[in-house]
Amino acid sequence: MTRTIVIGEGDILLAVDVQNDFCPGGALAVPRGDEVVPLINLVASRFQNVVLVQDWHPPGHQSFASVHGKQPYETIAMPYGLQVLWPDHCVQDTWGAAFHQDLAVLHAALVLRKGIHKQIDSYSALYENDRKTPTGLCGYLKERGFQRLFLAGLALDFRVRYTAEDASREGFAVVVVEDACRAIDVGGSLDDTHRCFAARAIRCVAVDDIG
Fold first, then answer.
1. How is domain 11-59+90-209 classified at the architecture level of CATH?
2. CB-neighbour burial class of residue 77 (10 A; exposed 0-12, middle 13-18, buried 19+)
3. Domain ranges of the chain
4. Are 210 and 150 in contact (CB under 8 A)?
5. How far apart, in whole angstroms, are the C-alpha atoms of residue 37 and residue 104?
6. What gap in Å lies between CA 82 and CA 59, rounded to an integer?
7. Any residues with CB less than 8 A from the CB of 75 and at least 6 apart, and which?
8. First to last CA, the chain
9. Which of 100, 147, 151, 172 lies at a C-alpha separation of 20 to 30 Å from 137?
10. What is the per-residue pLDDT across 69-123, written as a single tens digit (0 to 9) for each?
């Protein structure tokens, strides 16, 4: 039997991109993405400290396939590396960018918006995709004295993975609440994610493991 993880003052939950465009009916729907909503509501109720992460792209963002006259899920070389091109999604002030209507985490202290710069994508909640440009969240977490980050949301193999990698690199202990995530799985990205987590000793747990 898995021992229950006790949440303390140094722990915080990051609920990543639980937005309409990443749920069924959205522009970039993660399969069964809406299933994470009640699970995140449940696990968030066990945390005193929660951050909501929100993808927030300007129109014509360079990660959109339409900008380049290409099809979604093609890849192109960008100055910061290989970029998967996506359908237009999470455009600022649209229905798709809004949080899912059933997400109920009223005690979240911060909404962190990422992907706001037109020329660079931002999977991670801590850094843009050049892995250098900060979003400001890392400073917030360190100044508040958090030491362990729990991650849940969409999608496991992109936004959650990159956030987990960057948080681990910054010295945080990282725990992924895997049953409160769903994956896209493009080109083997889910298997790559599990290998990455194992290599970095990023722990994966279930909602029921958290007390």
1. 3-Layer(aba) Sandwich (3.40)
2. exposed
3. 11-59+90-209
4. yes
5. 8
6. 21
7. 82, 83, 84, 85
8. 14
9. 100
10. 999 999 999 999 999 999 999 999 999 999 999 999 999 999 999 999 999 999 9
